[in-house]
Amino acid sequence: MTKICLALSFLISVAASADHAPSNNSPSMGQAAVVRFFYKTPKFSNLIEYKQHTEVDTQKESGLTLGSRYRLHRNFKAGLFFSRRQGLRHDDDWVKDNNNDWVWQNTNNRAENFVIFELSPRMLLPFLSGKTWVFEFRMRGERNLENDHNSLKLKPGLTYFWLKNGAPFMNFFLQYEAYLPLNYGTETIYQTWIYTGFLFHWSKRFKPGLFFTKYEKKWGPSATFNTSSPGETYLVTESSSILGLSLNINFN
Amino acid sequence: MNKLYLLFLVFFFSFQVFAGSGKAVFIKGEVLIKGSNNKFIRLKKNQDVNLGDMIRTKTKSIAVLALKSGSKLKLNENSAITLRTEKTAKKPESLFLNKGSVFISVLKTHLTKKTKKTKIKLVLKTRSAAMGVRGTKFFASFGKQANKSKRKDLWMCVNSGLVEVRTTHTKKSILVKAGEGVHVKEGTEVSEPKPLMWTKKLNWGFDSTKGDLTNKVEIEEAYTDLLDKDYD
Questions:
Q1: Whose C-alpha in A77, B8, B193, B231 is 20 to 30 A from the C-alpha of A56?
Q2: What's the ipTM?
Q3: What's the domain range around B167?
């Protein structure tokens, strides 16, 4: 009898925890649009970028980033950026609403500011066919000024340049990005993104592109959950994909 | 008597060093010379070269020539150069780049008392441009050989000293300083001098005892620096 009671208690607590945790989510494909403005000088590559995309449910993320990259060496650039983003979701956004139901907080109108420092070594891979392959390993340190979260984003990527008359005609890229939370979260890698796509050099100024992204996010216990359900935990994986359009505009 | 004999020996051997306008001091691979008989024959190390001679290198070949004036040329692979005139008191030395690319090292000249300006010691000409060298090292190359429209392009960069570039199309001359380079597009338009990233990897060596002389930078890199492209 005691054993049955214990087993029942265990099952009830698991069921309760499952109710309190976000569901494993594999929503349908989202859409994205990105526009970038570049202004180049011999040493600096200046950037203004606006992007917007829809992911799960009705969550809409958007962000404006501006900054500059400096060419320290032929194979090495360093960058500094400021970014303002809306619609981001964090672990702590899993909260109880007025009806005491567990929900994801609507953050579509919540603005967050980031400072980003970037290092990007890159190299040509002349042993690959065509000799116009570039490998880049982009490392970004991001600080969220709203919640003091520090993240490290590691993004190795391969780009193939299709040249015509010595100038790029199209480029095709494949990139992998891993988000490593430095002072928050329960997992070593919090998010992973795989990007693939192309950019068409329609003119010196305008370069439209198409990209496809597959991502995976891991959600750990929120502060509200830890308070209301001490001793319990959860780890939920959300994965989906995004199809996006981009437009790069070069001012010089 | 001994002093006279010594002077005679110095005089005699100086003639032996440069019986012609210059000498081939380093040869790698297949290097040819066309002289007054208008036929190409193999150029050997320590062989003299004369005014009017055309020196040509084949694939994976290099020639370093030491000229009487003290200038040195390093002719890269698939290149050709003609020795036009020697330096005189009134005129600079003149070379003609027929094809490919060449590194040139010119002895620094002294300031003239009258003008306090460095005189042009050597002129490198092509069909479309003339480069007057005031010392000391520069590199000149024709554009992409595979592309007919690019063959008339000329790229030039200066390692040290000053080079004056002028096209036959316009009479305007542009001074290019050390660390800068220019692009003479289709032989007509000279770009503003500026540092060219692709030139940082050029092999400026002239002395084979100090290392490999092969230049591994391909002129295609001049047209687009893929490592400088930012798209996101």
A1: B231
A2: 0.83
A3: 2-208
